[in-house]
Amino acid sequence: MAKRIKGTLRVIGISFEIELRRNLTDGFVLFGIVIQPLIVAFTALWMLKDKGPDYAIFIVVGSAMTGLWTALLFNSGNSIIGERWAGTLETLVGTPSSLRVIVFGKVLANITQSLFSMIGCYTLISLVMGYPLTLSRPVFFLISILLTVFAFVGFGVIIASLFILIPDFQRLQNTLEFPIYILCGFLFPIALLPGWTTPISYILSPYWAARALHGSALGALEINQIYISWVMLIFFSAVYIIGSSALYRLVLKRARVDATLNTTG
Amino acid sequence: MNAIEIFNLKRQFKTTIGVIKRQTKEVVAVDGISFDIQEGELFGLLGPNGAGKTTTIKMLTTLLIPSSGTATIMGLDVVKDAEKIRPRIGFIFGGERGLYWRLSGLDNLRYFATLYYVDVNIAKKKIPELIELVGLKGREKEKVEGYSRGMRQRLHIARALLHDPEVLFLDEPTMGLDPVGAREMRITIRDLQSAKKTILLTTHYMFEADALCERIAVINKGKIIALNTPEKLKHTVQDLSVVEIEIFGIPPKFLEKVRKLEFVDSVVVETHNQRQILLVHTPKGPSGISDIVEALNGLRLGKIVTREPTLEDAYVRLVGGNCNGQEN
Fold it and tell me: Which of A157, A206, A232, B171 has the fewest CB atoms within 10 Å, i.e. the most exposed one?
């Protein structure tokens, strides 16, 4: 058992490292994680210069989360597409390692680098503009950030499976971007949405991440409500990760039947 | 003991044709093939493009699920026991895909060593050994995108050997290599055979199959049409001689005239830049030359020689040899 866990952690570690190295040599990804967040952060903070600090931090956290989701959807999705085109998706499936664990490492790398990029950019620009961003509950905010990584990785592992199953899934990438912003309450509260969408928001782990981050940044949530957000976030992320085991078995079986692991069939 | 057992293996693919009136069409890539490969045997699978060689290998390497039939590797079923098979096999597919081009050769090997659960200490020793074996020493820290085609092919071999697999699937491993690189690759394959690895090799190069393989199966249109040792396959064309005629431009009507000669078994044209070599398989031998030359009357002919048939001639006869070859 210990050997198996060690092996799995090594696979996550090397997939994380290889994904980071690949991203750091890709101009498109580098633009997305260094230049684009700087532009977004500068624009957002410039626009909010004269607004109250509460409103500003809500928008900053929200726009950082939208950036995180976009990075996850595009970097992780394109990474799977790239593997298929390079012929390495087939090589990965042919190894004894679980593709789900490999994807976990890749998504973790994409989320971590995007998160650091977002935090770095907002901190840098706010310092440069002399517009400090204040957090109501910094410790709770920090813990919420760590849990947000978990929420996005769990969600990302599920999303990545769709790119494995459906070669044309890239066409839906753009259409998936905005519904998640809206349903997860990144930029405005889900209370503004029709009632029937609320259950959908509740089963999305990034919603609980957004709630915990906004709540701890603004101090708008009671401490026990932040705890509830954490518990729900952990619960749904764990459900995704455990459920993804069966999902990947099905997806890989389908891909081996439909010959979609490679572009050449 | 048999390392690989294949029984009535079949694989179909669905394709769609048309834009408005879309129709689904089923293409049979592998059509009920059966053969066994013994442990430690180097077995060749030959066939023209699209014959079903790569599809067969992909089913055996657990990357495709057969439509019907069964296949086992070391007694394990390729569908039910895929996860148990993967640590015991290694595979390379011809060409340059399947590697991370923006990473170094060394990083590629480190990555796959971990994915094959090679112990850290073993990997530290094994990776430099393999880099040396495939002749990449000194270049291993460079990005793969800067490698030549041959270097990438050799990196594939190193990757496939990282976990010391019992069974190796080599799909056209010398494809696109220069003559020196191809010869080195054949030496590597021979060394693997000496190390008692079971190897399934596909190739387009008949001399390569003749030199390396203990048994050969010829596959065409998804079916096995011959299975024997190279020597016995050559015996199937023992009744023929091959007349080779150098020609500088041959219109199709002249080719047809040669084909229609009653003593001609098959005709192949190989193109070498500005000239063609017409290979006429005939039981008549040198005595048929005058009639063939008569049929080509009016064309500029060069050297004419008669030789004994090779494995390639046996292959041409098996796969229906009235075709145009293309060489440089």
Answer: A232
